[in-house]
């Protein structure tokens, strides 16, 4: 697609991206406190049965809201039901038990496929249309002991580079799947054992004013993604705060040579991220590592104050991929390190089998109105013979960079318009190799 055509989409993206209404206040009819069903906020009692009884009772009455009042309530896996919402009051902590027998293995979606028997999440919701999870409380994974165990096993593995993430049970904080019209608002996701908020095959989701955090003193809490957008469409992520040690937001799907045939993994499309603060993480937005089609993504009016990659597009050599119409606009960068672009091969856990290397496409990437200071521009590089990269536009940019050159290989129609780096106007050919 010629770049002039791509820019017509980009120029109109603010008008064509979906618009969501303001979220209603938490539904309060038939609100039921988990205290009334025997839950104890002592930080020790395992309350799975009491909380699940509250959920079941509210569902049996036709729906309503389950209230988690102030206090620390330890629990294993919980299963929300249609018509049942969850509200965590200020001062409420719903905390994962580390006794993994309270997370009985089951078939679950994770890492681009369905694992026949793996750990469920703390909160699990399937086909709960209209679901609301709200409040100023905390979902706490209590992950540190399991992170330590992971790294100990990783160090002892014969091949640490390919040590599997699913090597032993770890719970996500929330798995919401096959749901429409979902709102997650105000909640803090803390110290997740695995991914924080995993959204699979959902449509019409708003995540607003949520926080995703791990302790500053833990160097690398494994697989603590903030939000995993897995095969979802029409998403709004706004006003959120990310301080994790993996992807802040990851667009995910399927993987492998026949991934495009996977009917369980429709495209990720129409994703709008705005007014967020990315303080810590590997990447502000990542496409992959399991992903097929990701398109129509707008990230705007955000701050990045951590040493991370703003946009990481992972190119798997074993998976056909199509990343298109991805735009970053009005981004404030403030870090001594970090990278704006990372579009490059990613080969961890690859498994091509006996299939021919698949073909992939990356097109219509735009970075506009970037300002501030950062580490470097970064890298654009295809999988040789497999990836076509085209129509990359950098426009209206004024940055101070420690590494001012963009290293770009195999890119068709790379354009620079009004780009200033370290006080000097930069044109495309002078900044590429």
Description:
By secondary structure, the chain is mostly beta strands. The protein has one domain: Single-stranded right-handed beta-helix, Pectin lyase-like (Pectate Lyase C-like, 3 Solenoid). It contains 4 helices and 33 strands. It has a 31-stranded mixed β-sheet that branches. The protein has a two-stranded antiparallel sheet with strand order 8-9.
List keywords for this structure.
mainly beta; 33 strands; Pectate Lyase C-like; single chain; 433 residues; 4 helices; two-stranded antiparallel sheet; 31-stranded mixed β-sheet; disordered N terminus
In short:
The protein is mainly beta.
Task: Give the CATH H-level superfamily.
Answer: Single-stranded right-handed beta-helix, Pectin lyase-like
Q: N- to C-terminal separation?
A: 23 Å
CATH-scheme architecture = 3 Solenoid
**What structural class is derived from the secondary structure elements?**
mainly beta
Oligomer: single chain
Low-confidence sequence ranges: 1-27
Instruction: State the helix count.
Output: 4
Residues in helices, as a percent range: under 10%
Rg calc: 22 Å
Overall morphology: globular
Strand fraction: over 45%
Strand element count: 33
- CATH third-tier fold name: Pectate Lyase C-like
The CATH class label is: Mainly Beta
What is the secondary structure topology, with strand pairs?
Elements (H helix, E strand, L loop, with lengths): L2 H9 L1 H4 L15 E2 L8 E5 L1 H13 L3 E5 L2 E5 L2 E2 L4 E5 L3 E5 L9 E5 L2 E6 L4 E4 L5 E4 L2 E3 L3 H13 L17 E4 L2 E6 L2 E3 L6 E4 L2 E6 L2 E3 L13 E4 L2 E6 L2 E3 L3 E6 L15 E7 L2 E4 L2 E5 L5 E12 L4 E7 L6 E13 L4 E7 L14 E21 L6 E22 L2 E11 L2 E3 L7
Parallel strand pairs: 1-3, 2-4, 3-6, 4-7, 5-10, 6-11, 7-12, 10-13, 11-14, 12-15, 13-16, 14-17, 15-18, 16-19, 17-20, 18-21, 19-22, 20-23, 21-24, 22-25, 23-26, 24-26, 25-27, 26-28, 27-29, 28-30, 29-30, 30-31, 31-32
Antiparallel strand pairs: 8-9, 32-33
């Amino acid at each position: 697609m010629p770049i002039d055509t791509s820019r017509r989409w980009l120029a109109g993206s603010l008008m064509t991206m979906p618009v969501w209404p303001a979220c209603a206040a938490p539904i309060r009819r038939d609100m039921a406190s988990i205290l009334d069903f025997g839950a104890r906020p002592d930080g020790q009692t395992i309350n799975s049965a009491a909380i699940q009884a509250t959920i079941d009772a509210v569902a049996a009455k036709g729906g309503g809201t389950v209230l988690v009042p102030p206090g620390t309530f330890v629990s294993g896996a919980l299963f929300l039901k249609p018509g049942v919402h969850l509200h965590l009051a200020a001062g409420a902590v719903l905390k994962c038990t580390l006794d993994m027998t309270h997370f009985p293995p089951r078939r679950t979606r994770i890492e681009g496929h369905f694992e026949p028997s793996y750990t469920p999440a703390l909160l699990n919701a399937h086909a709960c249309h209209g679901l609301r999870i709200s409040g100023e409380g905390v979902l706490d994974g209590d992950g540190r002991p399991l992170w330590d165990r992971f790294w100990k096993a990783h160090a002892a593995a014969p091949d640490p580079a390919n040590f599997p993430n699913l090597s032993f049970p770890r719970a996500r904080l929330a798995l919401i799947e096959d749901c429409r019209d979902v709102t997650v608002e105000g909640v803090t996701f803390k110290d997740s054992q695995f991914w924080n908020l995993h959204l699979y095959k959902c449509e019409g989701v708003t995540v607003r004013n949520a926080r995703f955090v791990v302790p500053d003193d833990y160097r690398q809490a494994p697989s603590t993604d903030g939000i995993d957008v897995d095969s979802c469409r029409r998403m709004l992520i706004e006003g959120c705060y990310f301080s994790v040690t993996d992807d802040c937001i990851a667009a995910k799907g399927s993987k492998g040579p026949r991934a495009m045939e996977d009917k369980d993994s429709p495209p990720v499309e129409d994703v709008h991220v705005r007014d967020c603060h990315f303080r810590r993480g590997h990447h502000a937005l990542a496409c992959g590592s399991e992903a097929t089609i990701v398109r129509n993504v707008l990230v705007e009016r955000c701050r990045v104050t951590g040493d991370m990659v703003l946009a990481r597009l992972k190119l798997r050599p074993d998976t056909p991929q199509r990343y298109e119409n991805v735009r970053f606009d009005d981004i404030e960068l403030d870090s001594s390190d970090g990278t704006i672009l990372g579009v490059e091969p990613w080969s961890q856990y690859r498994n091509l089998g006996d299939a021919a290397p698949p073909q992939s496409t990356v097109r219509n990437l735009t970075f506009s109105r970037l300002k501030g200071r950062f580490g470097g521009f970064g890298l654009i590089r295809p999988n040789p013979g497999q990836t076509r990269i085209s129509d990359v536009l950098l426009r209206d940019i004024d940055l101070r960079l420690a590494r001012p050159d963009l290293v770009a290989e195999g890119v068709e129609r790379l354009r620079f318009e009004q780009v200033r780096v370290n006080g000097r106007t930069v044109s495309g050919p002078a900044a590429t190799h």
